[in-house]
Amino acid sequence: MPNYDTREAVAVLGRARGAMYPHSFFAARAKAALELRAAVIDAARRAGFAVVTDATGQEVIQPNESASAVVWLEASHDGIRIGISDNGQRFAVSSAPLEFDAGRGMWVGVEEDHYLSPIPGEPILRRSAVAVVADAIVTAMSGKA
Question: What are the strands of the beta sheet with 69-76, ordered from one edge?
Fold first, then answer.
């Protein structure tokens, strides 16, 4: 029997199933969003940003020690929302442009990844969800930090 490449078919069918039966992925989407949030927080720490715990017990990213504004990330089955909290006042800034990849059980960027070099014979990769959220954080911080 021939060995067919099924990666794209799994992605196509997974997106279709997610669109037709979104409720069947709520738990997986929410779990993946929490994992993504943790990965973004870790990346912010490794990049040298302060990560502090706010009054609600959530870890938030502090652009610098003197900033009163912090960046918060809200994870849900819809992905990640990014916002700014300044002196206790919390407001949403944006949602990261992500899509749930049901075949891989994780969030991916909706854009193609031009940071990584294409590998001949391999599918074109989507942007890393962590990088997409990082871009949205930088945009949010540029308005308040």
Answer: 50-53, 59-62, 69-76, 79-86, 89-95
Q: What tokens does 145 get? A: 């930090």
Measured distance CA(101)–CA(140) in Å, rounded: 25
Tokens of 44: 């912010």
Cβ 125 vs Cβ 104: under 8 Å: no
Q: What is the DSSP string of the chain?
A: ------HHHHHHHHHHHHHH-GGGGHHHHHHHHHHHHHHHHHHHHHTT-EEEE-TTS-EEEESSTT-SEEEEEEEETTEEEEEEEETTEEEEEEE--EEEETTTTEEEEEEE--SSPP-TTSPPPEEEHHHHHHHHHHHHHHHH-
Distance CA 39, CA 128 (A): 11
The pTM score is 0.80
d(CA 83, CA 97): 14
pLDDT in tens, 40-63: 999 999 999 988 888 778 888 887
Q: How far apart are CA 29 and CA 52, in angstroms?
A: 26
Burial of residue 97, with CB atoms counted within 10 A of its CB: 0-12 exposed, 13-18 middle, 19 or more buried: middle
